[in-house]
Design goal:
Layout: E1 2-8, H1 15-28, E2 33-41, H2 50-58, E3 62-69, H3 75-82, H4 89-97, E4 104-112, H5 122-129, E5 133-137, H6 143-157, E6 161-169, H7 175-188, E7 192-197, H8 205-211
Parallel strand pairs: 1-4, 1-5, 2-3, 2-4, 5-6, 6-7
């Protein structure tokens, strides 16, 4: 079993769509995939969350969502406001390990790398699982700083960064985006391994799964 954690340089950079794309690409290779979303926030009890979106886009069927909180906040803050138990590192590790029958287990974080999911961050989870972290980043202005901060935090914690993926790449990128695509690997020392077409999260499954393998560098693999 390979485990890959997916984080972002901030919120709304495309983590869910990237997770779905990796799942779709792995499924296209005939691999089995499972997805874990430890903490979902900002979604009511019966509303579809990130896991449902990953299922819709990729076709993956084995998924786990551990906790859901109504307020669109960091999971630990949302838990306290709702009077609900916070996630723990131990239960999250156990949930990920329970998916061991899959060839690939994808774990999608919440917000950025150091957002508190409960009594832990995604860095703590990566260390405990001895798993690498893929960083989803934006294309435009500000991304160099945000991405370098994130990759430095991983390096400082002794966690391997599995690569960078631009979560939304326009068919007509502006000058900043074009320059950033070249500069991201230069300033971070981490390979840019993929870029997702802008708006792909609104596609149907057939179109999404057909395109997903082409969004990643052929030399890159989520299997470690």
């Amino acid at each position: 079993m390979s485990i890959l954690l997916v984080t972002g340089t901030s919120t709304d950079v495309g983590k869910t769509v990237v997770t779905a794309a990796i799942a779709a690409a792995a499924l296209a290779e005939g691999r089995s995939v499972a997805v874990c979303k430890p903490g979902q926030t900002g979604v009511a009890a019966r509303e579809p969350g990130d896991v449902a979106e990953i299922q819709r886009l990729s076709g993956v069927t084995r998924t786990v969502e551990l906790a859901r909180y109504p307020d669109p906040l960091a999971p630990d803050t949302a838990a306290r406001r709702a009077g609900l138990p916070e996630l723990t590192l131990a239960e999250t590790v156990a949930a990920v390990e329970s998916l061991a029958g899959a060839d690939l287990v994808l774990v999608e974080g919440a917000g950025g790398l150091l957002v508190r999911l409960g009594d832990f961050t995604l860095v703590d989870l990566a260390q405990k699982l001895a798993a690498p972290v893929l960083v989803v980043t934006a294309a435009g202005l500000g991304t160099l700083n945000h991405t370098e901060l994130t990759t430095r935090a991983l390096q400082s914690a002794g966690v391997r960064c599995a690569g960078l993926v631009i979560g939304s790449w326009s068919s007509a990128p502006d000058l900043a985006s074009e320059c950033n695509r070249a500069d991201l690997p230069r300033v971070t020392g981490v390979d840019l391994v993929g870029a997702i077409s802008a708006g792909a999260g609104r596609w149907d499954r057939a179109r999404f799964t057909a395109a997903a393998p082409g969004w990643f560098d052929p030399a890159w693999s989520p299997f470690v």
